[in-house]
Design goal:
The complex is a heterodimer of chains A (262) and B (308). Chain A is mainly α. Chain A has one domain (15-20, 31-49, 62-255). Chain A contains ten helices and no strands. In chain A, helix 6 (145-169) runs antiparallel to helix 9 (212-225). The longest helix of chain A has 32 residues, at 64-95. By secondary structure, chain B is an alpha/beta fold. Chain B folds into two domains: 6-222, Rossmann fold, CATH 3.40.50; 227-290, Alpha-L RNA-binding motif (Alpha-Beta Plaits, 2-Layer Sandwich), CATH 3.30.70. Chain B has helices at residues 44-52, 73-78, 95-105, 112-121, 137-149, 167-182, 194-200, 218-225, 269-279, 293-302, and strands at 6-15, 18-28, 33-37, 59-64, 67-68, 80-83, 155-159, 186-190, 203-208, 211-217, 228-234, 251-252, 258-263, 283-290. A six-stranded mixed sheet of chain B has the order 6-7-8-3-9-10, sandwiched between helices. A four-stranded antiparallel sheet of chain B has the order 2-1-4-5. A four-stranded antiparallel sheet of chain B has the order 12-13-11-14, with no helix packed on it. In chain B, helix 8 packs across helix 10 (293-302). The longest helix of chain B is centred in the middle third of the chain and has 16 residues, at 167-182. Classes of the chains: A mainly alpha (262), B alpha/beta (308). The A-B interface holds A 1-11, 13-14, 16-18, 20-21, 24-25, 28-29, 92, 95-97, 99-107, 257, 261-262 and B 52-56, 73-75, 77-80, 82, 84, 86, 88-93, 97, 101-109, 111, 114, 117, 147, 149, 151-152, 154, 179-180, 183-185.
Chain lengths: 262, 308
């Protein structure tokens, strides 16, 4: 046994390994992490696409199913990107196995990017599966495909950062679930997934402009259908600023090892 | 002058206004087995956590083979393997997967031969594909040792590795530690079992309330602070302890045929034997015994150097 020979260091390997571990983690419980959100989205599609949707018309030239599908895809992307990193990082903190990472040469950049990329992969995978299932109910024109992919990637990146922030600030499982139940879920439902903001009374329509998810959902819908309440540039601009702000916030927490190292 | 494996300078860590580690400095040579001892709450784990990077350094510096563990943290951490006191595992993965991941975190490509060696030597083979949650406490400890060694660290830190483990594992562990030490790995260990430190460590440091109260070669510490005792078996029973043996902390057993005498560190044994002959005690046999590290530790506590 030749133990005292130092093995060569491969600088990118810590990032790759952490990414691989995070992906395997959610694949290992795929029934919870991939199948459940897809079933939830499919139920929404069935209700609004095949049953109620036939009796609702809110956007000229498009069926209600076509209107609601971009929002449902975005809902899957947002929820799963957030919960992937939030649950994994919080569990590591809670169970104490975060020390396995803290003692290693993983850099803050590698740490953030591995958790973020894994969360994006899960979020986007759910989004793609929801889109494929939605093809059974309605086809989308994909007016601006590059813009649609950009918005989906921005959404998953943004909510991965929010997941990091939530996982670090949460003290227990209850406070972690509060981020989902009291922040993300209301903002999604009030952000125009099921209705266009333009049909609301003026006061509520103006108030909806304060909802950051409105810009994500509307921008994504514009990219897929070619119509939206706002111009794509406004949506893209607001989402980009939010993404940078949350990335900066998450990066500050990780660089300082806030609530990770004592 | 050779670069020490670990050099700690004026290390301090304060929690809520009270120092957990208070201005400690020590140096560990390459290839040494060094013991860090002390009662609960002495600051041993805080010190180890600062070396490993789990805890921020309050003030002072830590250098691992000359690399500052804050400025050159990537290099310093690659050189250190830490087995933590608490069992920390990821229940999602099997032993085999977790070991591969851990090597990767250190930027080390999977070395199948080395991984296999660790698995074999630590008896992990039958459990290799079990998820962690299904392992016994002893197996989890064995896995944690393998995990600390998977990237071939030059300095291995073992924080109470034998706490709550059975005798067999304890022997396996120490044999393994000795073997990797012979291969060139420097060892820093903490243990509550002082006889283990006595058997394993070249040098020991004793911490109390965050401060270093002793730092010596194990043999020197035992020689300087350790008392020796002499058990005198008598041919005929004594009714009382002779007056001129009272200063030897003499104790007579109930039958009156065994007399235990204590020698201070510097008192020559011959002087006491001459005294016994002068008294004319009917000596049948004599046993001598050196104090253990545990007794030295208790002695230091009684002297107030180490407070419980």
């Amino acid at each position: 046994m030749k133990q005292n020979q130092e093995p060569p260091f491969v600088a990118w390997l810590p990032f790759y390994t952490l990414l691989q571990k995070e992906i395997r983690r959610f694949l290992r419980v795929a029934s919870q992490t991939l199948v459940t959100p897809v079933i939830t989205a499919s139920l929404y599609l069935f209700i609004f696409g095949a049953t109620l949707g036939e009796r609702i018309s809110i956007l000229e030239g498009f069926s209600y199913a076509q209107f609601v599908i971009p929002g449902l895809i975005m809902m899957g992307v947002i929820n799963n990107s957030f919960s992937n990193v939030a649950s994994s990082l919080f569990m590591s903190r809670y169970l104490g196995n975060i020390v396995d990472l803290l003692v290693t040469p993983v850099t803050p950049t590698q740490f953030i990017m591995a958790y973020t990329l894994a969360a994006m992969i899960r979020g986007l995978a759910v989004g793609v599966i929801v889109w494929l299932i939605s093809c059974l109910f309605a086809s989308l024109p994909w007016a601006h495909p590059l813009a649609a992919i950009t918005m989906a990637c921005l959404a998953s990146f943004l909510f991965a950062q929010f997941g990091i922030i939530a996982a670090i600030h949460a003290d227990n499982f209850d406070s972690l679930s509060m981020y989902t139940n009291f922040i993300i879920l209301p903002l999604i439902y009030l952000g125009g997934v099921f209705y266009p903001i333009s049909i609301l009374p003026p006061f509520w329509a103006k108030l909806s402009h304060l909802n950051p998810l409105f810009y994500l959902i509307d921008g994504f819908r514009y990219a897929l259908l070619g119509v939206g309440d706002l111009s794509f540039l406004v949506s893209f601009g607001v989402v980009s600023i939010m993404t940078m702000a949350l990335f900066f916030w998450a990066a500050c927490l990780i660089v300082r090892s806030y609530r990770l190292r004592n | 002058m050779p670069i020490p494996a670990l050099a700690i300078q004026n290390l301090t860590k304060v929690y809520d206004g009270s120092p957990a580690v208070n201005d400690i400095s020590l140096s560990i040579d390459c290839g040494e087995i060094f013991g860090l001892l002390g009662p609960n709450g002495a600051g041993k784990s805080t010190t180890i956590n600062m070396i490993g990077g789990v805890t921020h350094i309050g003030s002072g510096s830590i250098k691992v083979f000359g690399f500052d563990n804050q400025r050159d943290y990537r290099t310093a951490r690659r050189l250190v393997g830490v087995m933590h006191q608490e069992i920390v595992i990821d229940n999602f993965f099997t032993i085999d997967q977790a070991l591969r991941f851990h090597a990767g975190y250190y930027g080390v490509r999977d070395d199948t031969a080395w991984r296999q060696r660790l698995i074999d030597q630590l008896g992990l083979k039958p459990h290799l594909h079990k998820v962690m949650i299904k392992l016994s406490g002893g197996m989890k400890r064995r896995f944690m040792i393998a995990k600390a060694l998977i990237h071939k660290p030059q300095l291995l830190i073992l924080d109470e590795p034998t706490a709550g483990v059975d005798v067999e594992l304890r022997h396996t562990l120490w044999d393994f530690v000795r073997e990797i030490n012979r291969q060139g790995t420097t060892i820093l260990l903490t243990t509550h079992y002082l006889e283990e430190a006595e058997q394993m460590c070249d040098r020991v440091a004793i911490m109390n309330h965050g401060r270093l109260v002793a730092l010596e070669a194990t043999s020197t510490l035992l020689k300087e602070l350790g008392t020796r005792s002499i058990l005198v078996h008598l041919q005929s029973p004594l009714t009382h302890i002779p007056d001129n043996l009272c200063c030897q902390a003499a104790e007579l057993d109930e039958s009156g045929t065994s007399l235990q005498l204590t020698l201070s560190a510097n008192q020559p044994t011959g002087e006491l034997l001459k005294n016994l002959c002068d008294i004319g005690l009917p000596i049948a046999d004599i046993e001598t015994r050196k104090a253990s590290l545990e007794e030295v530790f208790l002695q230091m506590m009684q002297a107030g150097r180490v407070k419980p």
